[in-house]
Design brief:
The protein is α+β, with helices and mostly antiparallel strands. It is 22% helix and 27% strand. It has a six-stranded mixed β-sheet. Strands 4-3-6-7-8-13 form a six-stranded antiparallel β-sheet. A hairpin with a 7-residue loop joins strand 11 and strand 12. The longest helix is centred in the first third of the chain and has 18 residues.
């Protein structure tokens, strides 16, 4: 019986170890910037493209390098990604073809954390969110989660507001899949840099994805988009720890 108890205890420790993993820089002190990457799927492995600013200091992950090894998160696993002091960079789901989260841990107040982050669906969209690990709110009091837990559901919630002709026009682009009419519904949604203005406007203005769907503060925006789209979807929080959750 004692040997069985020891075996079960060892198995539990092994399982716990599999559920937690540390990646990023080897040096870490309490209070250093940290990005937790949680995979809530019981079956799918999530892989994130990791990018670091070329001007990152030596203390930060990816100093002087933009393209870095991808972060792999197994089903049910949480990776604690130690990005290091002064990190600016991005994590993009679906091996770089999903939602992209840009983060800036440099702050602007010595001794007081002020972390900036945003959600970008210009290159693709995945069911992923980012927000403060503490569950705290954005500085202005609004929801602190960037990104969408279910992009298809969010698009479907707006699909019925379009007339059949508008629906068919969007389906013809190939970026939305599904059916038209009163009982019509979407079955899949896609996004990349080649998407037309109509597609961008649907996701940004009508479905109101919780991200910017095109670069902000640039010329040539589709009609009806704000002058600084990216700024509208940037968050600033008083914490040095963020969590990416993949669904």
């Amino acid at each position: 019986m004692r040997s069985l108890t020891i075996f079960l205890a060892a198995a539990a420790l092994f399982t716990a170890a599999l559920a937690q993993e540390i990646q990023g820089v080897s040096h870490y002190s309490p209070g250093d910037p940290l990005v937790n990457i949680e995979n809530t799927s019981p079956t799918e492995t999530h892989v994130y493209k990791v990018e670091g600013n070329a001007d990152n200091p030596s203390s930060a992950y990816g100093a002087g390098s933009w393209n870095l090894p991808m972060a792999t998160v197994l089903p049910g696993q949480t990776v604690h990604f130690q990005v290091g002091p002064g990190f600016i960079g991005a994590f993009t789901g679906s091996k770089g073809a999903g939602t992209r989260f840009e983060v800036n841990f440099r702050g602007d107040s010595p001794g007081a954390y002020k972390t900036w982050y945003n959600s970008d669906m210009e290159f693709g969209m995945s069911n992923t969110t980012m927000g403060p690990a503490s569950g705290s709110k954005q500085i202005d009091g609004n929801d602190s989660l960037a990104g969408e837990q279910d992009c298809l559901a969010k698009a479907n919630s707006a699909w019925g507001s379009l007339d059949q002709a508008a629906q068919q026009n969007l389906l013809d682009t190939g970026y939305l899949e599904g059916s038209t009419g009163g009982n019509g519904a979407l079955t899949a949604v896609h996004m990349d840099k080649q998407a037309s203005d109509d597609v961008i406007s649907f996701f940004q203005n009508i479905a109101q994805m919780n991200a910017y769907v095109m670069p902000g503060s640039v010329a040539g925006k589709p009609a009806g988009l704000t002058a600084a789209v990216a700024d509208s979807f940037s968050w600033s929080v008083a914490t040095n720890e963020l969590t990416i959750t993949g669904y």
